[in-house]
Write a structure and sequence with these properties.
Helices cover 14% and strands 23% of the residues. It is α+β, with helices and mostly antiparallel strands. Strand 1 and strand 2 form a beta hairpin.
Length: 119
């Protein structure tokens, strides 16, 4: 199983293919935001990669990051854990002023992923 290291939280074994947003909340216990429920509409599920950043992304993620003019971050709702990775959880419920983290993301990536090269 791949290892997910979250700075300040530890290292966790995560089933291959699990959505990163779910691995953060369920396996690592991070209060990760996902206001739109993991549907690539809001960008609140942002993370910074320290190591092991995937070389592909969904077209929806690429478009949303460009629309919001965001660089140096990825959307955890659009990433599968496939290999060992280290991330910094930068978008958390604590200190956000939000009532909750958002609706529970489904196990599958939404919208239906079209994979493209990162960058």
């Amino acid at each position: 199983m791949p290892k997910l290291t979250v700075e300040g939280y530890g290292t966790f074994e995560v089933p291959a293919g699990k959505r990163l947003v779910l691995a953060l909340t369920e396996d690592a216990g991070v209060d990760q935001l996902h206001a739109c429920g993991g549907n690539c509409r809001c960008t609140t599920c942002r993370v910074e990669f320290v190591a092991g950043e995937p070389t592909t992304m969904t077209q929806a993620e690429k478009d949303k990051l460009a629309e919001r003019d965001l660089t140096g971050v990825r959307l955890s709702c659009q990433i599968h854990v496939g290999d060992d990775m280290t991330v910094r959880a930068i978008s958390r419920l604590e200190g956000s002023g939000r009532a909750d983290a958002g609706g529970a993301p489904e196990p599958d990536i939404h919208p239906e992923p079209v994979w493209v090269a990162k960058g």
